[in-house]
Amino acid sequence: MIEWRKNVGDAVTEGETLLEVTTDKVDVEIPSPATGVLATISAGPGAAVEVGQLLGEITPGGASAPAAAAPGGAGSNGSPAPDEPATLVPIQLPDMESVTEGTVVEWKKAVGEAVAQDEIIVEVSTDKVDLEVPSPAAGTLAEISVPNGETFEVANPLGQVAAGAAPAAGAPAPAPAAAPATAMGTGTGTQAPPPVRDVAASPIARRVAFEKGVDLAGVTGTGPGGLIRRADVENAGTGGGLPDPAPPAGEELVKLTGPAAALADYMDESRSIPTATTFRTISVQMLDAERKRLNEALAVAGGGKLSFTHIIAWAIVRAVQRTPGMATAFARVDGKPHKVPRDTVDLGIAVDVERKDGSRSLLVPVIR
Questions:
Q1: Helical H runs in 117-212?
Q2: Is 188 helix (H, G, I), strand (E, B) or coil?
């Protein structure tokens, strides 16, 4: 879902938020890759788009339309004249809610190579999602600021594209300036491993390994420099799982049975389900007044009492009915993520119950 902050013909500055995109994971504010004028909008407000699809185009430099070729000016192919410096456009991830850093998995292009606008030039991984980052402009990859395997903050650019520039005819493309082999070479041509904290793994691979109990030390990475990707962890299966930790010496072990064991299993399984959390702060004054009114009516009708939990639970049910996507489930089939649309809403509420022996436990009845 898309919401544009600018209209065609509006002036924009580099880094200014152009549009907001809502996904099933995060809300993303996409900044302008250059200073100029918004020339076209390819995906209108409210449209659903695929990742990598062209959203719009910007005319750099503030002109409302591409300038016509003139003697001594830009050539017929739109490249800058030889005496005009190319515009450097930063390669940057959009702002993503709760995502602060990522790891460069692999650069698809080397410094000096020609790139097309929206061509995938680098793959990055965060603890929430893996991303293929497109080129913000057509031209030449001018700089790689974050080499393969290194971690970066989302606010910092990954590199720069020289917009409109092209490799010189007959000249070899320069070597990647930030490649680990150049930056950390020993002088013998042997490529040094990328800097890592312990095991070279992407953030999302670490999270999946934690959820599945996979020891990363036993996983072979297929990424650059042996970087472990998410697929490597998933393909490792359960054979590389960590052993169950031994209980502390001298402490008593009590086996969980019945509802307690089931609840523990469900809580453990829930960690494998991707979730996003949002918070809203509201006044409970109206809620408290409504609860008192309802309880007074129930007392007149012959009994019963509502708690805040009852009212909030009913509000959740109504919200899911109005927003069916909230009832969508998640499953993995052959290692691939799938969503499972559902037409029904099931509500589970933990209830404190007393057993026959006087002990208490939590029971979670499911209301269909």
A1: 180-183, 203-212
A2: coil
pLDDT one-digit tens code per residue, 217-275? 888 887 766 778 777 887 776 444 455 666 777 788 888 777 677 778 777 777 777 77
- Are 50 and 28 in contact by the 8 Å Cβ rule? The answer is no
Query: Collapsing DSSP states into helix, strand and coil, what is residue 7?
Result: coil
By DSSP bridging, strand 120-126 and strand 101-107 are antiparallel
Instruction: Please tell me which residue, 366 or 271, carries the higher pLDDT value.
Output: 366
Instruction: Give the type of residue at 201.
Output: A
The burial of 146, by beta-carbon neighbours within 10 Å (0-12 exposed, 13-18 middle, 19 or more buried), is given as buried
The whole-model pTM stands at 0.36
pLDDT in tens, 323-350: 888 888 888 788 788 888 888 878 888 8
Segment (H or E) for 361: strand 360-363
β-pair partners for 103: 125, 151
HEC sequence for 19-73: EEEECCCCEEEEECCCCEEEEEECCCCCCCCCCCCCCEEEEECCCCCCCCCCCCC
